[in-house]
């Protein structure tokens, strides 16, 4: 019988931080991001005029209070847009 391994992360905050790092590693300055709730696509070339976000603003530079302009979900509801599907 094998012993149970200790969890690699001791708190949910550590897990969230690791997930955020992984997400950010996949996101380049020109990466289009899609809301997983309503499918709205954030395009850095266009920005988000409704929220005062200038064209050329990468997703990683959006303020923490940014929400999807269509459904109001926060930044963590966005995933890299897959051009082959979309």
Compute the average pLDDT: 86
How many beta-strand segments? Answer: 3
Give the biggest beta sheet. 3 strands, antiparallel
Secondary-structure element series: HEEE
Question: Which word captures the global form?
Answer: elongated
Category by helix and strand content? alpha+beta
Low-confidence stretches: none
Level-2 CATH architecture of the domain at 29-86:
Single Sheet
Question: How would you describe what is shown here?
Answer:
By secondary structure, this protein is α+β, with helices and mostly antiparallel strands. Helices cover 16% and strands 9% of the residues. It has a domain at 29-86: Rubrerythrin, domain 2 (Single Sheet), CATH 2.20.28.10. It contains one helix and three strands. It has a three-stranded antiparallel beta sheet with strand order 2-1-3, with no helix packed on it. The longest helix is centred in the N-terminal third of the chain and has 14 residues, at 12-25.
Topology of this structure?
Layout: H1 12-25, E1 33-35, E2 41-42, E3 78-80
Antiparallel strand pairs: 1-2, 1-3
Compact summary:
With 86 residues, this protein is α+β, with helices and mostly antiparallel strands. Helices cover 16% and strands 9% of the residues. The N and C termini lie far apart (48 Å).
